[in-house]
Write a structure and sequence with these properties.
single chain; alpha+beta; 5-stranded mixed sheet; 13 strands; AlkB_hom8_N; Reverse transcriptase domain-containing protein
């Protein structure tokens, strides 16, 4: 969505990465239970079970070997509990935006307000004030100091200042890069910082691989170690960003694979082939889920074999996931035009 919008003339994107202060601890059981009953129509027995789970919890604190007196808590949901993220998702389900070209992207307690701006638009507008008002009325505290704003603007005649986002009288800091869901996003969509971070982490683990090889560990175990502890770092979320990298950054990451191959004594798969495999797999998974947000992006041609390739003006959009996935699907045997 971001890449497609930026491919249009005179557009930019503004992202507000919201940070909640102790999000799970601030949930109000009485509000949650009311929504589960009225909106999601959960049975009474399940509602009572959830209410019993959230209220009357006894807690103690251990400090310097001393245990505090018990304190009863009836607010929030225990952190580290499998049920807590699901309850938070249901609790915040009514937090939505109604303005055009404004979207809330939510993953548990990680929330992003995305504004697709055009022409003279400069800020999030009423969508931000509505979001802040919803948080206040539902007892969720926004940490303004940790909440960040990012402006992605490739216009040559872009205004020098697009205005500040204000929350509770405080100005939200505008940043050039932000770590979201484990990956670094920058306002140029080049993922240079993300590449550097991955490279450093992978190099640290190469040391462990060298040690295992020094102790004459079986080659099969070395391959498993590489796959689990190094390749997993290199390929984390890379269906989203790998094709957007410069050739220099691609070679930088590929050098990790080459080094590990030499240490193990067996060639490991290159990142390009892994990326193509993962993109195809992800695209086919989306095609099998009609309710997926990207499902509508894949439209078959009248022949029923190939998919329409979206028109694009920039390499930036062409290198994004959807166009790349469609090109890979169309290149599969049986789909290529005779």
């Amino acid at each position: 969505m971001v890449y497609r919008h930026l491919d249009k003339t005179g557009t930019c994107v503004r992202l507000l990465f919201a940070d909640f202060s102790s999000a799970f601890n601030k949930m109000q059981p009485h509000i949650l239970i009311e929504r589960l009953a009225n909106v999601f129509n959960l049975p009474d027995q399940l509602l009572l079970l959830i209410l019993n789970f959230l209220t009357g919890r006894t807690q103690r604190v251990l400090v310097n070997g001393q245990i505090s007196l018990p304190l009863m808590s009836s607010t929030g949901s225990p952190q580290g509990c499998v049920l807590s993220p699901l309850l938070f998702i249901l609790y915040t389900d009514s937090c939505r935006v109604t303005q055009n070209n404004r979207f809330l992207v939510k993953f548990s307690d990680d929330t992003v307000l995305m504004s697709l701006l055009s022409g003279s638009e400069i800020n999030h507008g009423p969508a931000l004030s509505d979001f802040v008002e919803w948080c206040d009325s539902n007892y969720l505290d926004l940490n303004v100091k940790k909440t960040k704003d990012m402006i992605i603007d490739f216009r040559r005649s872009a205004p020098p200042h697009l205005g500040s986002s204000i929350i509770h009288g405080e100005v939200v800091e505008v940043v050039e890069e932000y770590r979201y869901l484990g990956s670094w996003i920058d306002n140029k969509l080049r993922f240079v910082t993300n590449t550097d971070s991955i490279f450093k982490r992978a190099q640290q683990r190469i040391y462990l691989l060298r040690k295992l090889n020094y102790f004459n560990v079986n080659k099969r175990i070395l391959c498993n170690f590489y796959s689990c502890f190094i390749e997993s770092i290199l390929t984390f979320s890379f269906v989203c960003w790998y094709k957007a990298l410069s050739m220099k950054d691609k070679k930088k990451l590929q050098s990790i694979v080459k080094t590990c191959s030499k240490i193990i004594g067996a060639k490991q798969r290159d990142l390009q082939s892994l990326w193509e495999e993962r993109v195809r797999k992800k695209a086919k998974s989306i095609l099998g889920q009609p309710l997926h947000a990207l499902h509508s992006e894949f439209s078959l041609m009248p022949s029923g074999r190939r998919y329409y390739v979206p028109s694009r003006k920039t390499n930036r959009f062409a290198n994004s996931f959807v166009p790349s996935a469609i090109e890979l699907l169309n290149s599969e045997p049986g789909r290529v035009a005779q």
